[in-house]
Design a protein that fits this description.
Subcellular location: Cell membrane
Strand content: under 5%
Transmembrane segments: 71-92, 133-156, 162-180, 187-206, 246-269, 278-305, 325-345, 366-389, 409-436, 476-494, 500-517, 529-545, 565-588
Membrane topology: Multi-pass membrane protein
Structural class: mainly alpha
Number of strands: 2
Helix content: over 70%
Shape: globular
Strand order of the largest sheet: 1-2
Largest sheet: 2 strands, parallel
Organism: Halopelagius fulvigenes
Radius of gyration: 23 Å
Number of helices: 23
Domain CstA N-terminal: 4-392, 401-537
C-alpha cells in the first residue's frame, strides 16, 4: 500500500513543469497578442459572441470540459489495470498532449473568427475536408450527449440529494444571469451572495432529496426523499440495465440539454458555469487539500484532522497487460481514461463557445492549457477515490460513479466534514460537471450542423439548422443509443470517437501552423496526433470486431437473448466505428498532402497572424 499523497505529488510536479515551462513556450510560439482584437469583441452580438471576464470564462470552460468522463475513465482503468498505468497516462500525457490540444484548438479558433476546427481544416484542405470533420464531430457529439445524460441519471438515482441541489443551482444561475446582464449590478457582491446561496442549496438537497420513481426492490432512498410519481417504471427503455428511477431521469435530462442549448449564453450558460466552478474548485481542490491535511494529521496523530480511514491505496498497482475482465491494456487503457488525459470534445468547446467569449488573447494560456491541467487534477482525484475504496466494479458504471462520491466523502472527513454531507456534496460536484457538459455539447452540435448546411435551401435543411430542431435530433439519437442498455460498449465507443477527434483537432492545428510559416515546428502537435491516430483506430477496430461482431453477432447465446433494440444498437455501434475510422484516415491523408505541399512550396500557405 502507498500513501495517496505521493500520487498527488507526482501529478503536481509534472503539471507545474508543464504550465510554467511548456505552456509559456506555446504562448510565444502561437504569438498571443493582447493588442489584437478577439472575435468576442469584433463580432459581439449578445447571443454567442459575448466577451467574458477571465474567471467567468474559465469557469464556463472548465465546467464544460470536465464532465463525468475524467471521473469514470480513471476509476474504470484503475480497477481493470491498476493505479500505476492509469496515473502514468494522466500525469505524463496531459501536459504533453491534452493541454497542448486544448490550447492550440483555442488559439487556432481565435485566428479564424471564432470558428470551429471543422471550418479551420476546410480553409486549408477544402470544403470536403471541412464537411468530413464536421460530420465526425457531430457523430461524436451525439455519443457525448448520450454518455453524459446517462451518467447524470445514474448519479441522481444513487444520490437523490444531488437532484434537488442541481435544480436549485440552475434556478440560481438564471437569476444570476439577470442580475449581471440585465440589471448590471455589482459583480463581486453578486458572486458572494449567489455562491453562498448555492451552498445553501446543497444543504437543502440533503434535507429534501428528490426522486422521480420509487426505489427498486432491495434498495432504498435516504430518509425524507420526495418521490414525484408512484408509478412502476419497468416499461422505460434501459430500466432493466440502470434501474427505473435512472431510466426516468434520462429523458428529463435530455430535454433539459435541448432547451438549455437554445438559450442565449448569458441567460444560463455563462452564469451557471461560473457559479458551478466554485463547486468544482471546492470539490477538486478540497479533495486534494484533504489528502495533504489527512496525511499530515495521521502522521502527527492529530485526530481532529485525520481522515476516517488511512489515506493509502487499497488497489493493486498493476494487474497485468491483460487486465481484469480479459481486457488488453493497449489500446484500451488510453481510450478508457479518455478525458483525464486528452479529449477531442475539448476542441469543440475551445473552438465552439470559449473562443467566442475570450476577452483577450493572453487569457488563452490559462483557460486552454491551464483548464486541461485542472481536468487532469479531477482525474487524479477520481483515481484516488477508487484507490481508497477499491470496489470490485469491473468497469461497471453503476458502482463506479457512487465510488467517486463515497471516496470523496472519506477524503473530506479530514476537515471534520461527516460523510453524510461530504458524499452528497461530491455527488453534486460530479453532476455540476455533467450538466454543463451535456447542454454545451448539444449547443456545439448545433454549431456543427449550421456550418455543414450553411444557408438552408430546403425545409429539411432549415429544420436541421434550427436550434430546436437540431437539438431534438441530437437528443433523440442519443436516447436510442442509451436505450440499448449496453454501457460498456457505449463508453468504449465514446472514448474511441472522442480520442480520434482529438487526433483530428491536433491535425487541424498542425495544418494551420504549416500554412502559417514554414519556420514553425510541427512536432508539438504532429507527434501527439500520430500517437492518438494509432491508438484510437486500433481501439475502434477492437470495439467493432471484438466487442460487437465477435462477442455479440457471432455469439449464439447473445443472439438468442438479445432483443431488436439491442441488435440495432450493436449494428449502429459497428457502423459508427467504421465510419469514424474512414473519416479520420481520409482527413489525415488530406492534411498530410496539404503539409507536404506547403513545405515543398514555401510561401504557398495563406494564413497570417492577423486573420480573424
Amino acid at each position: 500500500m502507498v500513501q495517496v499523497i505521493w500520487l498527488v505529488a507526482a501529478v503536481f510536479a509534472l503539471f507545474s513543469v508543464g504550465y510554467l515551462g511548456y505552456s509559456k513556450y506555446l504562448a510565444q510560439f502561437v504569438e498571443l497578442d493582447d493588442s489584437r482584437e478577439t472575435p468576442a469583441h469584433k463580432y459581439k452580438d449578445g447571443q454567442e459572441y459575448v466577451p467574458a471576464k477571465k474567471p467567468v470564462l474559465l469557469g464556463h470552460h472548465y465546467s464544460s470540459i470536465a464532465g463525468g468522463a475524467p471521473i469514470v475513465g480513471p476509476i474504470t482503468a484503475g480497477v481493470v489495470w491498476g493505479w500505476v498505468p492509469a496515473l502514468a497516462w494522466i500525469a505524463i500525457g496531459n501536459p504533453l498532449m491534452g493541454s497542448v490540444h486544448d490550447f492550440v484548438s483555442l488559439s487556432a479558433s481565435l485566428r479564424h473568427e471564432g470558428k470551429s476546427i471543422g471550418y479551420i481544416i476546410g480553409e486549408y484542405v477544402g470544403e470536403r475536408g471541412k464537411d468530413m470533420l464536421l460530420w465526425f464531430a457531430f457523430i461524436t457529439i451525439i455519443l457525448v450527449v448520450a454518455v453524459f445524460a446517462l451518467v447524470v441519471a445514474i448519479v441522481f438515482d444513487a444520490y437523490p440529494q444531488a437532484a434537488t441541489a442541481s435544480l436549485i443551482y440552475i434556478g440560481l444561475a438564471v437569476l444570476f444571469g439577470a442580475y449581471l446582464y440585465q440589471l448590471n449590478l455589482p459583480f463581486i457582491p453578486g458572486t458572494v451572495a449567489f455562491v453562498v446561496a448555492m451552498f445553501v442549496g446543497v444543504w437543502v438537497g440533503i434535507q429534501y432529496p428528490l426522486a422521480l420513481l420509487p426505489a427498486a426492490e432491495g434498495s432504498s432512498y435516504p430518509a425524507g426523499t420526495i418521490v414525484l410519481f408512484a408509478m412502476e417504471g419497468s416499461w422505460l427503455p434501459a430500466a432493466g440495465s440502470f434501474g427505473t428511477n435512472a431510466a426516468a431521469w434520462i429523458p428529463v435530462i435530455l430535454l433539459y440539454g435541448a432547451l438549455a442549448s437554445a438559450l442565449p449564453v448569458w441567460v444560463l450558460l455563462q452564469p451557471r458555469d461560473y457559479l458551478s466552478s466554485f463547486l468544482l474548485y471546492t470539490g477538486v481542490g478540497g479533495a486534494l487539500l484533504a489528502v495533504i491535511v489527512g496525511t499530515v494529521g495521521g502522521a502527527l496523530g492529530i485526530s481532529a484532522i485525520t481522515s476516517s480511514q488511512p489515506l493509502v491505496t487499497n488497489l493493486e498497482p498493476y494487474y497485468g497487460f491483460i487486465g481484469r475482465g480479459g481486457l488488453p491494456l493497449f489500446p484500451l487503457l488510453f481510450i478508457t481514461i479518455a478525458c483525464g488525459t486528452i479529449s477531442g470534445f475539448h476542441s469543440l468547446v475551445s473552438s465552439g463557445t470559449t473562443s467566442k467569449q475570450l476577452n483577450k488573447e493572453s487569457d488563452a494560456r490559462t483557460i486552454g492549457y491551464g483548464g486541461m491541467l485542472g481536468e487532469g487534477l479531477l482525474a487524479t482525484v477520481a483515481l484516488i477515490t477508487v484507490a481508497l475504496v477499491s470496489p470490485d466494479v469491473g468497469g461497471g458504471i453503476g458502482l463506479a460513479l457512487p465510488t467517486f462520491a463515497t471516496g470523496g466523502g472519506i477524503l473530506l472527513t479530514s476537515f471534520g466534514i461527516p460523510t453524510s454531507f461530504g458524499g452528497p456534496f461530491m455527488a453534486l460536484v460530479l453532476v455540476s460537471f455533467l450538466l454543463t457538459s451535456t447542454d454545451t455539447a448539444v449547443r456545439l452540435g448545433r454549431y456543427m450542423m449550421e456550418e455543414i448546411i450553411g444557408t438552408p435551401e430546403s425545409a429539411t435543411e432549415s429544420f436541421a439548422a434550427d436550434r430546436y430542431g437540431n437539438a431534438a435530433v441530437q437528443c433523440l439519437a442519443a436516447y436510442v443509443l442509451i436505450a440499448s442498455g449496453s454501457w460498456t460498449t457505449l463508453w468504449a465507443l465514446f472514448g474511441g470517437a472522442n480520442q480520434l477527434l482529438a487526433a483530428l483537432a491536433l491535425l487541424t492545428a498542425t495544418v494551420w501552423l504549416a500554412n502559417w510559416s514554414d519556420a514553425k515546428q510541427l512536432l508539438s502537435t504532429g507527434g501527439p496526433m500520430v500517437v492518438m491516430v494509432t491508438i484510437t483506430v486500433l481501439g475502434l477496430l477492437w470495439i467493432a470486431l471484438h466487442d460487437n461482431i465477435y462477442a455479440k453477432f457471432l455469439n449464439s447465446q447473445w443472439m438468442a437473448s438479445a432483443d431488436v433494440v439491442a441488435m440495432l444498437s450493436a449494428a449502429a455501434q459497428i457502423a459508427i466505428a467504421f465510419t469514424l475510422i474512414y473519416l479520420a484516415l481520409s482527413l489525415v491523408k488530406m492534411g498530410y498532402e496539404n503539409i507536404q505541399k506547403v513545405r515543398e512550396q514555401p510561401g504557398s500557405g495563406e494564413f497570417t497572424p492577423g486573420d480573424d
